[in-house]
Amino acid sequence: MGNVYKVGDSAGWTTGVDYEKWASSHTFKVGDKIVFNYDPEKHDVVEVSQQDYNICNSNSPISRYNSGNDELEIITPGTFYYICSYSNMCEQEKQKVAIKIDKEKSTPSPPFPTNNDTNGRVCMRTKSGAAAASPFSFSTHSLIGLLVSCGLALYLH
C-alpha cells in the first residue's frame, strides 16, 4: 500500500497553483495514489503525450476524467502528463502537471495484462464507470472487473 497524494494539496486541481513545484516536491512510486479534486463544471483532467503537454493540446487524449474526484493508483513507472482542457486553463493558467514515477524507488508493477494498442498502459475504470487507457487503476477493481470493463484478453504464458 502506497501514499496518497492530492494534486495541488489543499487547493486541489484548479488555477493559481504551481503544479511543477508541487510535483517536484514529491517522490511518486508504484502503489501510490494520485487524487485530482476539482469542480467538474470548470475543470477536467486529460492525460496527454509529452508533446501535447508542452503545447497544451487536448485534441488527442490518452485518457480523460471529469468526475471532479478522480483517484488513480500508480501501477507502472514513467512520466505521465495531465492538463485541464477547459477554456485555456492550461495555456494561460498553467493548469498542468507532469507526474514522474521513479523506477528505482518503485517496487515491481503488479502483473496486469497489457494491450499493445495502449502502449503498455492497462485499462482502468473511472468512478463514473467509463473505461480508459491509463498507467493508473482504481484500487477497488479486480482483475475480472478489469477484463470485463475493458474487454482485454489475457495471454497466459
From TrEMBL:
| Positions of the Phytocyanin domain | 3-103
Question: Hydrolase among the record's keywords?
Answer: no
Q: Is Coiled coil found in the keyword set?
A: no
Q: Which SUPFAM superfamilies match?
A: Cupredoxins
Q: Where are the transmembrane segments?
A: 136-156
> In the UniProt record, which is one GO cellular component term?
plasma membrane
* One GO MF term: metal ion binding
Q: Which UniProt keywords apply?
A: Glycoprotein, Membrane, Metal-binding, Transmembrane, Transmembrane helix
Signal peptide feature range: none
Kindly give the Pfam families that the UniProt entry links to this protein.
Cu_bind_like
What InterPro entries does the annotation carry? Cupredoxin, Phytocyanin-like, Phytocyanin_dom
PANTHER family xrefs: BLUE COPPER PROTEIN, OS07G0570600 PROTEIN
Protein name as it appears in the record: Phytocyanin domain-containing protein
Species annotation: Sesamum calycinum
